Amino acid sequence: MTRSATAIAHPNIALAKYWGKRAGDGNIPAVPSLSVTLAGMSTTTTVSFDDTLVDDELELNGAHAESSRPKVRASQLLDRVRAAAHTTTRARIVSVNDFPTASGLASSASGFAALALAAVRAAGLDWSAEQVADLARRSSASAARSVFGGFVELDGGDAPDGTPSLGGARPVAGPTAIDLRVLVCVTTEDAKATSSTDGMRLTQQTSPYYPAWVADAPASQRAIREALLAGDFVRLGELSERSALAMHACAMAAGIVYMTGATLSVLEHVRALRSAGLPAFATVDAGPHLKCLVRSGDAAAARESLERVPGVLRIIDTSPGEGARIVAAGAGGAT
């Protein structure tokens, strides 16, 4: 018997970055973050529990991953689902991204959000979005944010009263809370050399700026949240750019460099646009692709200008979108 479900999820970019993990189990970020889930890029994942399988199978973007790190992480997530559903049945996973994978565009966020939701539904579990987000976070912390649409915060570190965070994700505002377009400047189609997990670990271990990053990030996240809820695009852009540069400075001090010459060229161009009177701001995750934050009315002019920057291969025009959702389900699943 086969029980299957197909889910679609979108990547998110953090406006208030997190970088580093809290000590201990649970895969909980060292600091809180705030992100926007992006329509315009997506992961589509089908999970099929099949009694005839002797092991889990993973097909990612058309290629079989028999003994890879992605398969190990996927099987670990499935093990948690199997334990909750009281089953030992193996599953086949087929997942496709319509944007570069493992390249700093949050493919792990959309990937594990889609996998978590599809696996839960295929296993017949009636879990809430919060439970699905918790499942996704244990595999990829940022994936918890992609379970929800619009603007989402993810707890990290310790609460103001000193209580350890549980790493919960929750919506802060809907997709239309602020006029925002995100122009993703793709600078390579290749995977990055250092994974985010390894980059965070090395930064925590060796960067002299890591303690300062952890101390500053919660206040930065609160300020970005306030700007969002106030509808202050310029303040949101300024603070988001500052958060991104602080994260990368902390990582660079540990020898972890995700930005390339093309990234810096685009950053310089975004600042030139701003100086010329077009409100544009930059954010960069753990990869070489810069995301330019603009208002809808400025998107066409900014895109036309950014397309001429050497090193920009193409631009993906995105905007705040919806969360993970089921698009098909077979026997044992639920829509």
Outline the structure in words:
- This protein is an alpha+beta fold and 335 residues long.
- It has two domains: 2-174, Ribosomal Protein S5, domain 2 (2-Layer Sandwich); 181-320, Alpha-Beta Plaits.
- 36% of the residues lie in helices and 23% in strands.
- The chain has nine helices and 14 strands.
- The longest helix has 21 residues, at 210-230.
Task: Please name the defining characteristics of this protein.
Alpha-Beta Plaits, globular, alpha+beta, 9 helices, Ribosomal Protein S5, domain 2, 2 domains, 335 residues
Can you summarize this structure?
The chain has 335 residues and is α+β, with helices and mostly antiparallel strands.
Q: How many domain units?
A: 2
SSE string: EEEEEEHEHHHEEEHHHHEEHEE
The poorly predicted ranges are none
**Count of helical stretches:** 9
Terminus-to-terminus distance: 19 Å
CATH fold category name of the largest domain? Ribosomal Protein S5, domain 2
| Strand-pairing-aware structural class | alpha+beta
CATH class bucket of the largest domain? Alpha Beta
What is the CATH architecture assignment of the largest domain? Answer: 2-Layer Sandwich
Using the CA coordinates, give the radius of gyration: 19 Å
Number of strands: 14
What is the residue-averaged pLDDT?
Answer: 93
- Share of residues in strands: 15-25%
Helix content: 25-40%
Tell me, briefly, the overall form.
Answer: globular
For the biggest sheet, the summary is: 8 strands, antiparallel
